[in-house]
Amino acid sequence: MKEVYYLGIDVGSVSTNLVALDQNCKVAFKLYIRTGGRPMDAISKGLSAFSENMRGTVAGVGTTGSGRQLAGVLAGADVIKNEITTHATAACRMVPGVKTILEIGGQDSKIILIRDSVVCDFAMNTVCAAGTGSFLDRQAARLEIPIEDFGSYALRSRFPVQIAGRCAVFAESDMISKQQAGHSNEDIIAGLCEALVRNYLNNLAKGKQIDTPVMFQGGVAANIGIVAAFEKALSKKVIIPQYYDVMGAYGAALLAKEYIAASGQATRFVGFDQLRSDYTVRSFECSGCANMCEVIQIILENNPVAHWGDRCGKWGAHQQQTTTVRQPGIL
């Protein structure tokens, strides 16, 4: 008898993540790959890797992340959810009773407050790169230190330097001046970790009550220097979940499973043959009203099949569906 899987796809600007859950909601497969500015290729690569390594039936698909609409069309998603919802769903599953979620990804960061398993408040930072994974990658390259070793350098520091962390440009300039002054890499990196945590708490968590349990997820959670800086600043233990790097995809898979069970419908997953179709993406400015929305359009074999980005719903309401209700896809 073939296994049944529920897929979660999280498409971000830096990484594309895929998680497959079995019937018992255990992770059977996970993949973290670089988006590389080509989300369609990353989605196809991730699903191809799944099809090559797993054998069974795809019973439901959920998508999330900044590219969730695109992934939803390409894969035939049953649910398309924002990152706040999917990260909160995954966190509550991993640590029942969790109250605070700290999340830092490649290009953005967010804080989510949960009470009685319900999101009661959140904040996101998508404007400044300070504190994100891409910023840390750049500083590690500047110091000629592998990003995997970044955190261990911070833990060896004896006298962390003071670095301005309110802005990525100022933080980088301040870090360079500290290098020129002769400070050790360990003290500079520790100072940078503390500055980025200070920036996060001042901007996102300002005025918010951070209660325990506190969970830290996203790719930056692998940086033990940042973890230590959070625990020092909060005077609280910070939990790193097992699947910290793919929690958005994990939550999307959970929501897909819940939806299929509640609706009783068959999945809209298009199957792997459809993934090889010739999709292209373009955008145009709608002149239907004063909003002048930039509408994103997906084209399959010269036919427009999906639209989004319009505020009024004009284009989304008339989009053609690339998939129909069908039996779960067989791998």
Task: Find the structural class using helix and strand composition.
Answer: alpha/beta
> What is the straight-line distance between the termini?
13 Å
Shape: globular
**Average pLDDT taken over every residue:** 84
Strand content: 25-35%
What are the secondary-structure elements, in order, as H or E? Answer: EEEHEHEHEEEHHHHEHEHEEEHE
Number of domains: 2
So how many helices?
Answer: 10
CATH topology description of the largest domain: Nucleotidyltransferase, domain 5
Describe the biggest sheet?
6 strands, mixed
Summarize the amount of helix as a percent range: 25-40%
CATH H-level superfamily title of the largest domain: ATPase, nucleotide binding domain
Low-confidence stretches: 319-331
Rg, alpha carbons: 21 Å
Question: What is the CATH class designation of the largest domain?
Answer: Alpha Beta
CATH architecture of the largest domain: 2-Layer Sandwich
Number of strands: 14
Task: Outline the secondary-structure elements.
Blueprint: E1 3-11, E2 15-21, E3 27-34, H1 39-53, E4 56-64, H2 68-75, E5 79-80, H3 83-94, E6 100-104, E7 109-115, E8 118-125, H4 133-142, H5 150-155, H6 168-180, H7 185-203, E9 214-217, H8 224-234, E10 238-239, H9 247-263, E11 279-285, E12 294-300, E13 303-308, H10 314-318, E14 329-330
Parallel strand pairs: 1-4, 4-5, 6-9, 9-10
Antiparallel strand pairs: 1-2, 2-3, 4-14, 6-7, 7-8, 11-12, 12-13
